[in-house]
Prior knowledge:
CATH superfamily of the largest domain: Pseudouridine synthase
Strand content: 25-35%
CATH class of the largest domain: Alpha Beta
CATH architecture of the largest domain: 2-Layer Sandwich
Number of helices: 5
Low-confidence stretches: none
Shape: globular
Radius of gyration: 21 Å
Oligomer: single chain
Helix content: 10-25%
Amino acid sequence: MLARGAVTVDRKVVAESAKGHNLQPGSSVMVAPFARPEDERAQSDADRELVVLAEGEGWLAVDKPAGVAVHPLNVDETGTLLNAVIARCPEIHGVGEGGLRSGVVHRIDIDTSGVVLFETRQAAWERIRGAFAAHTVEKHYRAIVVGHLRGEGNIEVGLLTARHRPARVRVASEAEAERARGVRISGTRWRSVALLDGATLVDVYPRTGFLHQIRVTLAHMGFPVVGDKTYGPRGGSITASRQMLHAARATTDEIDAHSPDPPDFAEQLHRLAV
């Protein structure tokens, strides 16, 4: 509530830094009325361009540009994919978790581009959410990584959240993995596609879906994603405006959505071609 400016002290909005602040006798503290998260309504944003890749009975697959969030974090926020989806499919309000996550079944990082699925009907949301939980949704990513990664393989690592704001994930130690407290075993299949100038184009197929899974796993292997400011090396000869990770395809049952390489990804491939 502090983070979203819902608390005032002596009529002045206080931020998270006010945690632990000692109040003085006579101070006036006011808190904005509580709204249940599922009752909040995201705004419609018809100005946000929405590229629909595929759609069917109760679902929609859209193309997410890098730098755009999947859903808003507060009711006043616009410019996210969900805001644009609401303008096209207002019936999505209340589907799934409802509120500011209406119709959302999965998310990808804000600086990752590509396919994102939304469900506009409750039955479809439950079906697709179940498919994600059962790991029957096939997700195909394209990544440009630092260094020459050859061949193909599968890797399983235990991941845990090391920090929440900003989010950071790390690979668990053997002892932590044995205790299994907060550790998620993640599986990732990868295949080298093309060797570039100091880099490699890689196809990645995550079998599970943990926060930052692909980026952390590739960095753990010694081949961080180009442009990854969180898990990549500082400096270096290869630079990029954002992490070169693209969700190229998502398939399950009747859903088959494909997103072509965005211009910045294609340009990076062109610059590194040998």
